[in-house]
Amino acid sequence: MNKETSAAAEKVMELVTTYAFEVIGALVILIVGWMVAGWAGRTTRQALEKSSRVDSTLAPFLSNIVRYLILALVVIAVLGQFGVETASVIAVLGTAGLAVGLALQGTLSHFAAGVVLLVLRPFRTGEVIDSGSQVGTVKEIGLFATVLGTADGIFVYVPNGQLLNSVLMNYSRNPTRRIDVVVGISYGDDVRKALSVALSLLEADSRILKDPAPETMVVALADNAVNINLRCWVNGGDYWPTLFDINKGIKLRLDTEGITIPFPQRDVHIVGGTAA
Where are the beta strands (DSSP E) in the chain? Predict the structure, then answer.
């Protein structure tokens, strides 16, 4: 081995010796930091979900923030392991963050919308909402989007900005809901009897609240029928089963009482005349 080869080998060994510990240390910091970030996120979420003083809606949002903050610190620590000045790193990250923010204005607007939704709380986890385009149960409010589960088991991922900028209907926020069932009866039938039959049907159902009391009324004299409305109030959880039972029950009761639910029909009057 000549002197030049020997010098090169010594230089390589020197570099390996010098940076091996930095590389190993950086890998250890990265692996441990990643594990700690995941553990901290899960622990934060579990602690918030168990706390009665914190709304469950905030749990996934805050746990994600904790995780990403720790990961950012891990990246800075890894760079510092190689002798990079942390102040310079923070400045570079700030500049890069500004550039990325300008490039991802839409995505960041969804993040800002998520913060606003958590502050205003028009809906919480477990509530059923209608955003105009989607109806479902809120499963999770994330950093950038809200996860809904529909009644037929479909996973729906809705950007937070879309929810914030639309008219939201929350079906679960109020404890009670009103049911209105409109049914038509024939013009030849006894309206008073039909109203009495419908009211007795409502009063016999224990799920229907007594205050406000159920009521029936004639709401329209339509082209083919006299429309009567069955109106009552129920607890939110009883809305759908009660609605379905009223629809079925009023049809059976009217059939039993001989009251007709007419179908669209038209009387045609032919004016007499002489044939050509």
Answer: 128-130, 135-141, 145-149, 155-159, 169-170, 176-185, 215-221, 226-235
Chain centre to alpha carbon of residue 151: 12
Q: For the chain, what is the largest distance between any 2 Cα atoms, rounded to a whole number of angstroms?
A: 131
Third-level CATH fold of 122-170: SH3 type barrels. (2.30.30)
The tens digit of pLDDT for each residue in 60-102 reads: 777 888 888 888 888 777 777 666 666 666 666 666 666 555 5
Report, at the CATH architecture level, how domain 3-103 is classified.
Answer: Orthogonal Bundle (1.10)
Residues of the chain with CATH 3.30.70.100: 176-256
Query: Contact, 35 vs 5, CB < 8 A?
Result: no
Which segments of the chain belong to CATH 2.30.30.60?
A: 122-170
Cα torsion 88, 92, 97, 102 to 10°: value is 140
Separate counts of helices (H) and strands (E) for the chain: 7, 8
Residue 198: exposure state from Cβ atoms within 10 A (0-12, 13-18, ≥19): buried
Give the side-chain half-sphere CA count within 13 A for 152. Answer: 2
Residue 110: Cβ-neighbour burial (10 angstroms; 0-12, 13-18, 19+): buried
Q: Cα(112)–Cα(38) distance, rounded to whole angstroms? A: 24
Whole-structure pTM value: 0.63
